[in-house]
Amino acid sequence: MINLSVMTTGERIKYYRGRARNGVGLSQAALAGLVARSEDWLSKVERNVIRIDSLDMITRLARELGLDNVGDLVGPSIDLSLVGPEHPSVPGIRRALNTPPSQHGLGLPGAALTGPQLAERVVEAWGIYETQTERYGPVGEMLPGLLAESYATLRQASGDEELEATRALVSLLHLYQVFLRRVGERKLSLRAADRAMQIADDTGDPALMAAAAWNVCGILLSSGEVADSLDLARSTIAHCRPGDDASPEHLSAYGALHLSAVIAAVRDSKAPTAWDLLRGACTVADRLGVDRNDFHTAFGPTNVKMHGVHLAAEEGDIHEALRLADDVDVPEPGGVLPLERTTRYQVEVMHAHRLNGDDFGTLYFLKKIMEASPEEIRYFPLVREAVQALLKRSRPQLRSEVHRIAEHVGILA
User: Fold this and answer.
1) Which residue, 203, 231, 257, sits at the end of a domain?
2) Is residue 108 scored above 70 in pLDDT?
3) Is 252 found in the same domain as 306?
4) pLDDT in tens, 121-144
5) Is 232:256 a contact under the CB 8 Å cutoff?
6) Nearest 5°: CA angle at 185, between 40 and 10?
């Protein structure tokens, strides 16, 4: 008898693929094609060589497999209904995005904000989103009003202040994109990112243009549109090449485009291209010299090394991924790199140890993840799969720690 409760996400996909289309089943090539990925990619997912790091992709797979709940692929204790209610802030955000820019901000009380004031408000919203556990409610309430204030400010601004206000608006639309993608509103998310890219393009500012394109690349990647993401990243890299006097912001956005292209290339079965792009990112990071978070890209030497680990893991070379991981010094929480970025990286290294059959290494990283991100750890399917695997063969010297983590993530009541 099949016991789905102990299956990994990859094993569940394989199980349901064999029973899709009223029991006829789907081949790997057919299912991969339906979600715009390669057969090799799906094979690696089903063999637990690589992970799916996108709820959008899990959702698309579930729909093509005829499932009503994404939880069927990631675990029964996670309620991820495909027909569930939208986030309460979405109607207001949708109205804000549907309002013509010329009508935004009309009738707001008081004078329009200055460029610096608007920039400060947007930074505040990003701070809430990146640092607070209960973030979706407060940020969702802020977004429509901030968009109105942004356009009202732009209408009054001129000169350098106009550029500052425009940068703030592009950053705000980036926050719109991230927020909407996380709450499952992909179409609205893409609309926000497209608008940001158009605004940035009108400025002629290469740093802003590169950052906005990087933003769109992220959506395309999470939606499985890897070829389009790779094309956009490479064309923008060619168009926004920094000169000798380029600002750190320009270098950060330019380097981040390389990292987006790295992921897109390897997922498009173009590993040699991916390694070439990673070497390009390394050159930019060396020029930058330090880790930064300009435009929320988290670009710098550390993130480039993290992507090297990711690239090796995506290729299925677990030993090389772990070798490269030994050279990555993960910053402490509260530093330049967002906690979400370092947590995702540690989950990936944990998964590599698990695939290598190293229970001690797997548990070590599970403990580090829980210590740094006690809330976020509950929502990683790879964490749940690792804990379930450890529970099945828990060694006496590991049992108490494994049970503690299992209770924390909700696997054990």
Assistant:
1) 203
2) no
3) yes
4) 999 999 888 777 677 888 999 999
5) no
6) 30
For residues 31 and 39, the answer to whether their CB atoms sit within 8 Å is: no
pLDDT at position 82: 41
**Same-domain status, 324 and 245:** yes
Q: Is 24 exposed, middle or buried (0-12, 13-18, 19+ CB in 10 A)?
A: exposed
The span from the CA of 210 to the CA of 221, in Å, is: 16
Count the domains in the chain: 4
pTM recorded for the entire structure: 0.77
Report H helices in 107-158.
Answer: 115-131, 136-156
- Secondary structure class of 180 (helix, strand, coil): helix
Tokens of 127: 């701070």
Assess whether 304 and 358 both reside in one domain. Answer: no
Domain contains 142: yes
Average pLDDT along the chain = 87
- Distance in angstroms (rounded) separating the CA atoms of residues 51 and 319: 16
Average pLDDT over residues 252-262: 97
CA distance 120 to 338: 19
What b/e string do you get for 97-128 counting C-beta neighbours within 10 Å, with b at 16 or more?
A: bebeeeebbeeeeeebbebeebbebbeebbeb
Determine, yes or no, domain membership for 338. no
**For residue 328, which of 357, 358, 308 has the smallest C-alpha distance?**
308
Instruction: List the CATH number of the domain containing 70.
Output: 1.10.260.40
- Sequence-distant (6+) residues with CB within 8 A of 185 are 86, 87, 90, 93, 94
Which structural domain, as residue segments, surrounds residue 189? 89-203
